[in-house]
Design brief:
By secondary structure, this protein is mainly alpha-helical. The protein has one domain.
């Protein structure tokens, strides 16, 4: 691989890590780039998980340091997400990928309109109103979100944010912190599955991860410093880009 491709890989990782930490959709940038480098789709998907794992480790640590990450809220949701990811990984081979992309794109467009026309629920803290009345419902929601993350990953940040804002009634800043933690919780499982199937390029994955970690560090600082209103605008832009890309693929 030429020297400039190493720099490009770090740059793509930085952008992907920034987007993933603030909103989502970073893998829609990194995966096509990995395929451009010559990796087949499965190898690219597995290699990308190295960057995702290290990116979210940095992001979680940063949010924890800034006292934004609510571990008490995050841990039960992590259990549901991990179990869902196991289920999702097991059924991944039976999915109609093209149809799934269309469905996801449609859902993301619906979410986009909700973010634009119902800004208060994404921005304002709803202290005292957090969480569904029945924790079983919360478990089911995050089980299925985790299942999606287990077999596809692309766009998982959007669905986690939707679950945390609309179901758990958290603002975007606190939701982002928990989102990053949840992805960190289930990614080792997905990565292990790809490793066992020899679908990970460690060298490229670690180079990409350098950029992802820098992007996650910067993204967490921007999220805390600039607040939920800025995160909402990043989310809108990321939703538009990811929706268009999913319909074009």
């Amino acid at each position: 691989m030429e020297w400039y491709l190493y720099l490009a890989t770090v740059g793509i990782g930085l952008l992907a890590g920034f987007l993933n930490t603030l909103a989502g959709g970073g893998s829609a940038i990194s995966l096509p780039f990995l395929i451009f480098l010559g990796l087949d789709a499965n190898l690219a998907n597995g290699t990308n998980r190295i960057a995702i794992l290290l990116q979210n480790a940095v992001g979680s640590a940063s949010f924890h340091q800034k006292k934004v990450l609510d571990h008490k809220k995050a841990l039960p949701l992590a259990v549901a997400s991990i179990l869902g990811a196991i289920f999702g990984a097991l059924i991944a081979v039976n999915l109609n990928e093209v149809l799934m992309r269309r469905i996801i794109g449609t859902v993301l467009i619906g979410m986009l309109f909700l973010v634009i026309f119902k800004p208060d629920i994404w921005i304002k803290s709803q202290a005292g109103k957090e969480g569904p009345k029945h924790r079983i419902l919360s478990f089911i929601i995050f089980f299925f979100i985790g299942a999606y993350g287990g077999f596809i990953q692309v766009g998982i940040g959007f669905f986690l944010l939707a679950g945390l804002v609309l179901s758990e009634r958290l603002d975007l800043l606190r939701s982002n912190a928990i989102k990053v933690f949840l992805v960190l919780a289930y990614t080792p499982l997905a990565l292990l599955i790809f490793i066992l199937n020899d679908q990970v390029d460690y060298k490229i994955g670690l180079i990409l991860a350098v950029g992802n970690m820098l992007g996650a560090w910067f993204g967490s600082k921007v999220a805390v410093s600039w607040g939920p209103k800025f995160v909402r605008w990043v989310l809108i832009v990321a939703l538009v880009g990811s929706s268009v890309r999913l319909f074009m693929m």
